[in-house]
Design brief:
33% of the residues lie in helices and 25% in strands. It has 483 residues and is an alpha+beta fold. The chain is globular and about 65 Å long. Essential for tRNA splicing and maturation. Acts by directly joining spliced tRNA halves to mature-sized tRNAs. Joins RNA with 2',3'-cyclic-phosphate or 3'-phosphate ends to RNA with 5'-hydroxy ends.
Length: 483
Amino acid sequence: MSSLIPKKIREMEYRIEADPSKGMKVPVTIYADEKLLQKMLTDRTIQQAINVSTIPGVLKHVVVLPDGHEGYGFPVGGVAAMDAENGMISPGGVGYDINCGVRLIKTNLMEKDVRPRLKELVTELFTSIPSGVGSKGAVRLTSSDLDEVLVKGVQWAVDHGYGSKDDADVCEENGQIKNADPGKISPTARKRGAPQLGSLGSGNHFLEVQRVDQIHDKEAAKKMGIFNEGQITVLIHCGSRGFGHQVCSDYLRVSEQALSKYKINLVDRELACVPNSSEEGESYRKAMFAALNYAWSNRQMITHWTRKAFERVFKQTESDLDMKLIYDVAHNIAKVEKHKIDGEMRSVVVHRKGATRAFPQGRDEVPKKYRDIGQPVFIPGSMGTGSWILLGKPGSMDLSFGSTAHGAGRMMSRSAARRNFTESQVQKSLGDKGIFIKALTREGVVEETPEAYKDVDAVANVSHELGIATKVAKLVPIGVIKG
């Protein structure tokens, strides 16, 4: 239990002022309602954010978003910006699942079209898309193929027949971040990554067939291709698999070994970091960018197989079904961005760990299609509740380095979920809500029970009320596949 009680600044905003005696260089700001804050106070979320505020070169404040919970070093649902010239870059500030992220596909189907074939559709998706711990993708990559994936990201997948160029246009970084370097990847990471491309994985990763439950902003929804409540969408949530995990492990070790070289004293070794401009910092950044591209390629392949599964079940082409990608956004990432700090625009390394970019209208980084309204943001909930589409707003730039929450946020450990629930209980609960699930393992169902997560509506509401990102639509699941 944290003994640190943040001071309330206004509704849904709390702060712990910088305390030099604790080594804090900047304050910690928490965006949450009372109930979400109380959850954070039951673990080390706040203490971890305070620890991050002691890292050399950290700027303005460390942000904890409403889905914040304890993580490795940095809290999940945390954002920190470091000076690009004199600050640090930290593998723990991105996390193990580099570019874990979400993408949303629209269709022109309505719930009444899908319900009669729901079990057939979910089974077809489950059969078509590899999932589970250590699952292997359906593609065999040579070493040079893998190099291309790591540099080209979504474009590699499109070049090999997985989707179209239009998909890349609505991905963060166009699904291909520059300056990735396969030469910075260890043989172990390559060995883990080559067989897993094109697979969903396990844990909290999923694919959901959803229906639009509520539309809050009709004009923004229309721009995204969402016109009616009851319309069917597909949400894909996965990342860089064992490849990203190994990249993080490799560079945590590099960073730990370099601490004495750069005379960096940390309050917690899990915060291991190196100067962003150092040789080690550059190597990690280029390796992490390679993992970003791997994950974008991975989600692109899964998108292609999803479209083909719909084609087979509904006997129509993906074009007939209007299965366009709405957007793809990363939520474990670090990159250099321009932000206003103390009245001047500065280049900073923004670490988003379990946090989604939420840029407003007008930013060059937002795809042309959305530049006049703002960037789409997705906050997935648990498999029994729902997900939100939001729209990045100007408030995000001042409050949270252009970031918002990435999900509901875990509040019960996987082991606690296994102790408290059975597969049949969870299956029945979902079935009672009209949700059909296919999962590879019983544990995969039980560990991700909706009761293990915070209230996604409350998380989205904090963002909306503060003007960080505003509500566009709520989606609820009708079919789920899990590893």
